Predict the structure.
Amino acid sequence: MRRLGPDDDPDRLYTVTGGRSRADESRFDLVTLVVSECDPTPGMQSEHARILAMCQYPMAVVEISAELRLPVSIVKILLCDLLDGGRITARHPRSAPAAAQLPDPDLLKEVLVALHRL
Amino acid sequence: MHSTVSEQTAGRDHLRSTADNGLKIVIVGGFGVGKTTMVRSVSEIRPLNTEETMTRAGIGVDDPSGVESKSTTTVAFDFGRISINDQAVLYLFGAPGQERFWFLWDRLFSGTLGAVVLVDTRRLDDSWYAIDRLEHHRMPFIVARNDFGGSHHTLEQVREALDLSPDVPLIDCDARDRDSSKKVLIALVDHLYALSARETTP
Ligand SMILES: Nc1nc2c(ncn2[C@@H]2O[C@H](COP(=O)(O)OP(=O)(O)OP(=O)(O)O)[C@@H](O)[C@H]2O)c(=O)[nH]1
Ligand SMILES: [Mg+2]
């Protein structure tokens, strides 16, 4: 299982992310669901094209990361590009509770129903 | 190249197009305690794994020399998925509770509904740290003892050994068993529900 990480050739990492910083990463949660708004186009950076191809149905950031075998933070940078270009939409967790705040009981009830059904 | 990608994506179960609310539950525990097994037992997809990396600067440790530090924190974790309804989808994460993992907790797992601490009574030491960190993050959790056989400790003894507050549910499980793993998740969400109901009742 070969992944691209910080110990890899810096040039390779630079190529994937276009040398951008990680400042924008917080725009995506691990479970933000990503949906493509267009098809890949010829000449598009291959990682961008792969993301557009795999997000025809909603797909979480962490699933994209696993599929691309790239660390989550690198994937988030790629997603920022696509979001800025209007090529994807991002469905963020609706009720991400702040630290030490409990989730909505109605939502928990829904989760319980689904778990009992498993 | 493109067709290879399509083929790979075509075979996997995709979410409903209405899905718009990702939820998180985290299973933490020492090495080999059964985290991946539990995720596999209840997930609707084969467990996937990935990793997150963070530079030291990013975790608030400034390099006093001013020279860019090459030191990074890498944490690997696996995950599975359970569809809840048309909108909500629950992601279940299995993560090692070792020290460096907690540097990434806020970045990866803020907004998590709750956690399961999976323990193996032959190696209880591994669990203390995770319990301490969850309390520190004020993350609600339950503890599940994974049954590897041969344990002669009662749950009361385990509770005492872990110095676990009476409010924290402690149950037995077999991570290989779907029904048993399902019961663990239900126990956690029941606990969350009770906490949340208590909070909203004056
Ligand atoms: N007897 C018994 N064996 C189990 C149980 N759960 C897991 N195992 C076995 O224990 C071994 C380790 O399980 P994993 O699920 O890989 O554990 P893990 O916590 O993901 O391990 P790491 O990711 O390496 O830290 C596997 O061989 C499992 O089949 C259990 O409840 N009872
Ligand atoms: Mg594992």
